[in-house]
Amino acid sequence: MKKLLIASLVATLAACSTSNPDVIQRGDAQRLSTVQDATVLSVRNVTVDGSQSGAGALTGAVVGGVAGSTVGGSREGLIVGVLGAVAGAAIGNATERGVTREDAVEILLQMRNGERRAIVQAKGNETLQPGEPVIIVNTGGKTRVMRAPAATRTQ
Q1: What is the Cα 132 distance to its own chain's centre?
Q2: Do residues 71 and 126 share a domain?
Q3: Where does the sequence pass through the membrane (predicted)?
Q4: Assessment of whether the complete model's pTM goes beyond 0.85
């Protein structure tokens, strides 16, 4: 029983959203995107803090409560079950936050019109360098930066 509950916690947390530019959400497929040209000014490593949606705490509380309630008689089981639920919620919350934390990059961009923009996105397969031409793809309010195709690179 414990293994099943722990497996459900891991599956729940694994389904959380990502900001990886190489992963496109199903709802964004087959949508027309706007594309802008820019040049990379700088790239720095950052960490996107993990989420605390409550799913980890809830799942941890259930696992801890069920596990604790099996200890001793009915009174002891109730007390240990409550303590297990509280401890499980704290552990589940910390687990969710740790599992959903992402290594990312903050990219400072020079737009063609002279404006500067910055975006944070999870590290993808591409490593962008200062001075490199890129495109900014905006789909449904979500933006990602990727290396410009050779046909659109300016000299």
Answers
A1: 26
A2: no
A3: none
A4: no
